[in-house]
Each structure stands twice: as C-alpha cells, then as structure tokens.
Amino acid sequence: MLSALARRAVSLVLSLVVASVVIFLALQAVPGDPAAFMLGLNARPDTVAALRAELGLEGSLAERYLGWAGGMLRGDFGTSYTYRVPVAELVADRVGVSVPLALLSLALTVAIALPVGLLAATRRGGPADWGVMGATQLGIAIPNFWFAMLLVLVFAVGLRWFSAGGFPGWSDPGGALKALTLPAVALALPQASILARVLRSAVLDTLDQDYIRTARAKGLSRRAVVWRHALRNALIPVLTIMGLQFSFLLAGAIIIENVFFLPGLGRLIFQGITARDLIVVQSVTMLLVAAVILVTFLVEVAYTLADPRLRRPRAR
Amino acid sequence: MRGSPTRGSPALWIGAAITAAVAAMAALSLVWTPHDITRLEIGARLQPPSAAHWLGTDQLGRDMVSLLMEGARTSIAVALVAVGIGIVAGVPLGLLAAARRGSWIDEVVMRGNDLVFAFPSLVIAILITAVFGPSAVNAILAIGIFNIPVFARVARGGALPIWTLDYVMAARVAGKGAARISVQHVLPNIANLLIVQATIQFSLGILAEAALSYVGLGAQPPTASWGRMLSEAQTMIYSAPSLALLPGLAIVVTVLGLNLLGDGLRDLLDPRLRRLRA
C-alpha cells in the first residue's frame, strides 16, 4: 500500500510541476509589456524598467518561472498590476466566497443525488426509475448558467425571495448564505444529475453480485441489503466521480460567479483578464488547478485506504 | 432500454430526429434565414411573435428565428471541429499506445492523459481564449485540446483486447506491421466505441461553446451564438425575460438530442449490452 501511495504522491508533484509550467508559458505568450501598460503611454523608459524589475519581469524565462513558482510555494503569489497589492490578499478576500460556494453545491449535489439515485436503483424499471432517468437526462443537458438565469427569473424577478446577485459579506451570515443559495443550486443541478446516474448504476452493479444474493438468502431484509452492502460497495465509483465533480464545481463557479456578480476567485480571474492583470490570472488559475489536482489526489488516497483490494499489491 | 436490439431504442430515434433537425436548421442558415441578422431595426425591437417574426425580435430588432438558426450553425461548427481535433490527434495516439503496450510510448500517452484529465478543462479553456484573444477559432482549439486525451483513452482501451485476438496474431504472423494492423484490423473494430464517444464529446462541446461565448470568449459579433444571446439577454432579464428563454431552450434541446442519440447508439452498437438484454 505504501508503494501505491508513494507512486500517487510522485504523480501529484509531477502534475503540479507540469501544470505550473503550462500556465506560466501560456501567459508568457500574451503580447505586450505589463509594466508599460500600467504606466501608460507617456512613461519614461527608466520608470518602466524600474517597474519591470519590481514586478519580477526581468531575467531569463527559467529565472522568472522559478521566481514565480518558488513564491507560490511560500504563499507569495506576486503583486497585482492593477490593484498594486499582493495577489495573496486579493485571493484571501475571495476564497471566502468561492470555497463555501463549492462546498455548499457539493453538499446539495450529494443531498439530491443520494436519495434519487437509490430510489431509481431499488425501483429498477418502474415509473420512479423512468422518471429519475428522464429528469437526470434533462439535468445533464441544461447549461448551469442558463439554469442560474431561470432561477433568477423565478425566485428573484418573479417571487422576489432572493436578490438577483451580489454578496453582502460574511459579517451578515444569513444574508451571505442566502446570496450563495441560488448559485449553489444552479451549480448542483447538473452535477447531481450525473451523480444520481452513477450511483444508480453502481448500486445496480453491486446488487447483481453473489454476496448480495447470499445476504438475502441468509434472511437480511431488502432495505438492510441495500444500505449495508450495496450502497457501501457502490461508494468507490461514487467517490471517484465526486472528486472529479469538485473540479467541475470550481471551474463552473467561474461562470456562475459572473451570473450572480459574486466576488469570488472566478470573477477575480475575469477581472484580471479584462484588465490585462496577468499575474492575477496566472496565480489564481494555478491555485484553482492545484486545488483540483490536490482534491483528486486525496480522493485516490481515500479509496486506496477504503478498499482492501487496492491496499494489497496485486497477486498477479 | 426498450426496443428491438437491432433497430434501436426510441431514445435513439428521438435523439437522431432532434439532432437531424438542429443540423438541418444550421445548414439552412448557410443559404437562407427568414431575416438578415446583420441589419438592425431598432424601431422593431423586442416585438412579440408575429407572422413576420415567428419568435419575435431581440433588443436590436433582429429576428429571433434567424438568430437561433445562425447560433445553431456556430455551436455545431465549433463542437464538430473540436471533436475532429480530438479524433485526428487522439485516436492515433491511443492506437499507438495499444500497439506498443507497456512501452515508454504507452506510458507517456497514458501519463499525459492523466495530467490533462486532472486539469479543470473550463478554466484552461478560458485561459487559452483569454491569452490568444476571444474568437471562434480559439474556442475550437480550447475545447478540442481536451478531446484529444478522451479519444486516446477510448481508442487504447478498445484496442487492447483486440490485440489479443487470433486474427491479429494471424496478421502478425503474415508479416503485417503494427501500423497496418492498427488501421486494417483494430480501427474498424473500435469504430463503434469512437462514434459513441464522438456523440458525447459533441454534446459536451456544445455546452462548452455556450459557456465560453456566454462569458464573451467565444465567437465574436456579428456572428450569432446561443451563449452570447443569453449573456445579452441577462441584462434585460427584468424587461424582456423571453429573450433569455429561447437560446437556452435551443441549447437544452440540442444537447438532449445528442445525449439520447449517444445512449441509443451505445445500446445498439455494444454487443455486450445487447446480450444482456436478450
């Protein structure tokens, strides 16, 4: 098991390095000099040069990469070209929106998918199953940002239960949660549809196994079999998908934050893009990618630990 | 799930019909739309459906039917080329990895795939379009790059069991090289897997294109796209909510049709499932 974990750890580090190189190189391809852009057309060449040095834009490609990547590891994400404050500060302000949003929508995803998927699996072929399969087919086809607009139409424009966007800050916890509710629902719907389908087929797969028949034969009730045996064994594929879904939720949040004008990391990236504040784009993108890679790694570790079959080296 | 195993399920036929209808609308827009969408008629803005404008007009007086038809063309063109990139670059990689199973080539292809899968694709797509400028071509590239590992993985997974079969052995004994065997014997046998995957990636491509053009990183005006129609409608969601409904419905119907088609094709083409049902 240790060797399996070590291999995963190596591939984690490798992924992070490759990701950082790709992101760094991609942003080097952007035309234009940020220092000249910041100082405007009439800046004197020596002022521009001084600013370039201050922003860490001097030196060879390798030096600049190592400077940036080393800084990321120490928590120094660079200095924003437009705000003139450390990117880390900007990020700290926005993490409080994006992370709760992703967690809230993940919780909603599970809360919807678990009962719905189980219902479909235990009523296989019945009207409930057909209903769930039809509804989830629709849920997968709906773009989350359009669903978000529909939610705004109904609950903000029509019923006036929620505001159409904005974020009051966590000093008002009730208001903050309320502001995150519609975005979280919009993010959760397609993911819940996918998860419910995965859960259904995973449970159906395990229900076909011999040990389930044995459990039924020794007199366990159907309910006990489903909960104690089928669901537990179905959790491995479900956990894998949930890990992937976290990445979709983080990425999807970029779009959804723009629909609801939420001051999260996604909006920070977009503001960076429009303002040509490349260091913000570069560092925040890297943070998002790193978060996704880390979550995937943790999920893999979790199911290596959870599944005894993966713990022992292969007999073959 | 129901339906004759050889003639396909109702899902297949509904999906095929929807897909064909959307494709026909898109193709028709190349030669004819009810109105010219580059001509703005501010006087005729935000009209309700009428004989002249079947679905009304938008905030600039453009005919909604014409806009939706052109939007279909944009979506399909972007998603189709992106799928093409994935197939052209990914399938040979996957075939090569399978033919040289366990070699360093296989290792590089598979590890490279793991890496790309670990990336949140939408974030990278946004990065690509932001760096190289928003345009339909860059949207295609951004979506297409992520199709490459998908097709490589499917091709490799499908090809591996075929390499163990007797007729491949016979072909090797007959002196055929790995490349010829891959093209002549392996590729025809994994074609059905690739077709199903292509349908799925096509529908994901439509959603990705919509998301990119919604945030302004897709096709640029005057080209119509469903995603940008939605983002323009959002600013008027209080005054003209119907503008936000039609493009969204168009996306949902198209993606739903493609997903049904993909599911139906998988059931039809996968002999394993066919046996299970019988």
UniProtKB/TrEMBL annotation, chain A:
Q: Keywords in alphabetical order, please.
A: Cell membrane, Membrane, Transmembrane, Transmembrane helix, Transport
Example of a GO cellular component annotation carried by this entry: plasma membrane
Q: Where in the cell is it found?
A: Cell membrane
* Record Gene3D superfamilies: MetI-like
What broad class describes the main subcellular location of this protein? membrane
Span-the-membrane segments of this chain are: 101-121, 142-162, 182-199, 234-256, 284-306
Identify a single GO molecular function assigned to this protein.
dipeptide transmembrane transporter activity
Instruction: Spell out the coiled coil positions from the record.
Output: none
Q: Where is the ABC transmembrane type-1 domain?
A: 95-299
Bilayer disposition of the protein: Multi-pass membrane protein
Question: What family does the Swiss-Prot or TrEMBL record give for this protein?
Answer: Belongs to the binding-protein-dependent transport system permease family.
- State what protein this is by name: GsiC_1 protein
Whichever gene encodes this chain, its name is gsiC_1
UniProtKB/TrEMBL annotation, chain B:
Q: Which PROSITE patterns match?
A: ABC_TM1
Tell me the SUPFAM superfamilies matching this sequence: MetI-like
- Taxonomically, the superkingdom here is Bacteria
Q: What is this protein called?
A: GsiD_1 protein
Query: To which protein family does this belong?
Result: Belongs to the binding-protein-dependent transport system permease family.
- GO process annotations (BP): transmembrane transport
Q: Which InterPro entries match?
A: BP-dependent_transpt_permease, MetI-like, MetI-like_sf
Where it sits in the cell: the answer is: Cell membrane
Q: Where is the ABC transmembrane type-1 domain?
A: 72-262
Encoding gene per record: gsiD_1
Q: Which UniProt keywords apply?
A: Cell membrane, Membrane, Transmembrane, Transmembrane helix, Transport
Membrane topology reported for the UniProt record: Multi-pass membrane protein
Q: Name one GO cellular component term.
A: plasma membrane
One short Pfam name that applies is BPD_transp_1
Primary localisation category? membrane
Q: Per the UniProt record, which residue ranges are transmembrane?
A: 12-32, 76-99, 119-146, 190-217, 237-262
